[in-house]
Write a structure and sequence with these properties.
single chain; 369 residues; alpha/beta; 9 strands; 50% helix; globular
Length: 369
């Protein structure tokens, strides 16, 4: 009898524990659902987009996560003519058919692209990250049947039935005279163009200013982009160690984001979100430390301890003098591009990139759009 009562007591206690755990779970799930709704203004179970905001924000800054980067921690390579390019094959998008091609540019084609028929109309796009994104977005819109650059071009009678080929020669951080040097190089190896678009202006000012602060010649590639590569080429172990640390954190962050996006319950999503936030904070902290390390090391560049020659100025130029030099280099580079292309009967359009960090109240009119 005593044993029976004991068993009954244990059974009752166990049932109460189970019930409390279930109620606690339901309560936590309800709280998580409420929190998710307050943040996203939609129900968790009926959400349309399962891609996390963290992934989207990171990829907007050029930080790619996942298997498509082949776990590479360094995606750029020094180039003898262009300064730096992306590592060929380091990224691909099968849906759009684009990849980092044989020359380190995001494109559907390897270069030089040779026309297979006279109906093809080849457009080369030069500039920095905005120009690169413009190229990818043009290809994306065409692939999805959306109204975009290529579709607008086909409204021109002469281009209505043309096969428009977009070739990107743009990459993050490029500034003149990199565009000019690339144009000359690719023309010299047989690349044909029917039209060339150059989107620049912002990098020339902002990144040349950074060069000036480090006393690196204003016409050289962006010190922010090329310095880490030159230091790695010269066996700077402190930079290598920082890159390894950042790479490990990025892999951990990628794993955590994948788990977050696969959550089926709001409670799981809330827990994984906290984990992602913690890793993201650590990742961003290490990036800041890395940038500070690069800034400290930049003062050591004097040509004697590096395998890469970066011309240094004797002193930091006054802003007025520096910006005048930047404007002159920008003008002469674009003018030379125009002259080269006009001589070859190739259309040239030069667009000035607005400053995305300086918002204004201006709105394009319907005619401008």
């Amino acid at each position: 009898m005593k044993n029976f009562k004991l068993m009954q007591g244990i059974k009752t206690g166990f049932s109460l524990v189970i019930i409390n755990l279930v109620l606690a779970f339901i309560g936590l799930e309800a709280v998580s659902l409420g929190f998710y709704f307050s943040q996203k203004k939609e129900l968790f179970y009926t959400r349309k987009n399962t891609i996390s905001q963290v992934r989207e924000e990171l990829e907007k800054t050029g930080t790619r996560l996942g298997a498509d980067i082949n776990n590479e921690s360094i995606l750029e390579r020094l180039h003898p003519f262009f300064g730096y390019v992306l590592k060929p094959g380091s990224f691909s998008n099968e849906e759009l058919g684009i990849k980092v091609n044989n020359y380190g540019f995001v494109s559907k084609y390897d270069y030089p692209f040779i026309k297979s028929n006279k109906n093809q109309f080849v457009i080369g796009i030069f500039g920095g990250s905005v120009a690169s994104d413009f190229s990818v977005n043009s290809i994306d819109n065409e692939a999805r049947g959306n109204q975009g650059f290529i579709q607008y071009l086909k409204q021109i009678p002469q281009l209505k039935d043309k096969e428009i080929i977009i070739l990107s020669f743009a990459s993050g951080g490029y500034k003149q005279p990199q565009q000019l040097l690339m144009l000359n190089y690719f023309i010299s190896i047989g690349q044909e163009f029917d039209l060339v678009i150059n989107i620049d202006g912002f990098n020339e000012v902002a990144l040349s200013h950074q060069n000036n602060q480090e006393r690196i010649d204003l016409s050289l590639p962006s010190i922010q982009h090329i310095l880490p590569l030159t230091q790695l080429a010269s066996d700077d172990l402190s930079v290598m160690a920082a890159i390894v640390q950042i790479s490990e954190l990025k892999n951990n962050l990628s794993t955590a984001i994948n788990k977050l996006e696969s959550c089926k319950l709001a409670l799981c999503h809330g827990w994984r979100s906290l984990q992602v936030k913690r890793l993201l904070d650590r990742y961003q902290t290490e990036i800041i430390k890395y940038d500070e390390q690069i800034a400290r090391n930049s003062s050591k560049i004097d040509g004697s301890n590096s395998l890469i020659s970066l011309k240094k100025m004797s002193e930091i130029l006054e802003d007025k003098v520096a910006f005048e030099k930047v404007a002159e280099n920008w003008y002469e580079s674009s003018l030379t591009m125009s002259q080269i292309l006009v001589e070859r009967n190739i259309l040239y359009f030069h667009f000035i990139q607005p400053n995305q960090y300086y918002p204004t109240e201006r709105v394009f009119s319907s005619e401008e759009k």
